[in-house]
Amino acid sequence: MDSATSDRPAVRSHLGSQASNGLKIVIVGGFGVGKTTMVRSVSDIRPLNTEEIMTRAGQEVDDLTGVTGKTSTTVAFDFGRISLNEKTVLYLFGAPGQERFWFLWDRLFSGTLGAVVLVDTRRLQDSWYAIDRLEHHGTPFVVARNDFGGPAHTHEQIRDALDLPADVPMIDCDARSRASSKSVLIELVTHLYRLSTAREGARAGAPGAVG
């Protein structure tokens, strides 16, 4: 996907002194699915990128199916920050997508409260490992279908292909759009809040719970 971003604000905001709720969020998915683009489009600060020009040797190792026009690749992680409101700040970490860098994911997931799994419906199999590792760590996540203009698939078809539980939210997005990417993050935070509320309710209703 073209990394050019749209509807970016002319002036980036500074972190307010009232911000007290910082959440580590990981954006993960297959190679070339739009993770770097999403961090760039939505970050309130100049994002940290670890992109390098793809070499011939790298092109021979990485699967470029569906991303033949890609000329650069993330070799560590991307980092950005967005304030959803005066108190809630998301620290965004974009994971490298190539299989040879997957060993970094478990370390990157440490301390993560939630994740966005970006998917390209032309290459859904590239998302399986990300979902597997998040489920292994017990990290809540949402699935965001990035718009690459491929064949149309219903959410039900994508859920079946990814074997997603019914309670995992799915949303469509355009990673180049700040507004669209922000909507994905809001959906994730809402999902995290629902899960937290459900856990609190379960504890309150457990035998022996003290009011």
TrEMBL record:
The species this protein was found in: Streptomyces hainanensis
SUPFAM superfamilies, sorted: P-loop containing nucleoside triphosphate hydrolases (SSF52540)
Keyword field contains Hydrolase: yes
Family: Belongs to the GPN-loop GTPase family.
Record-given protein name: ATP/GTP-binding protein
A GO molecular-function annotation: GTP binding
Keywords, ordered alphabetically: GTP-binding, Hydrolase, Nucleotide-binding
Pfam name, any one: ATP_bind_1
Alphabetized InterPro entries for the sequence: Gliding_Motility_GTPase (IPR052705), Gpn (IPR004130), P-loop_NTPase (IPR027417)
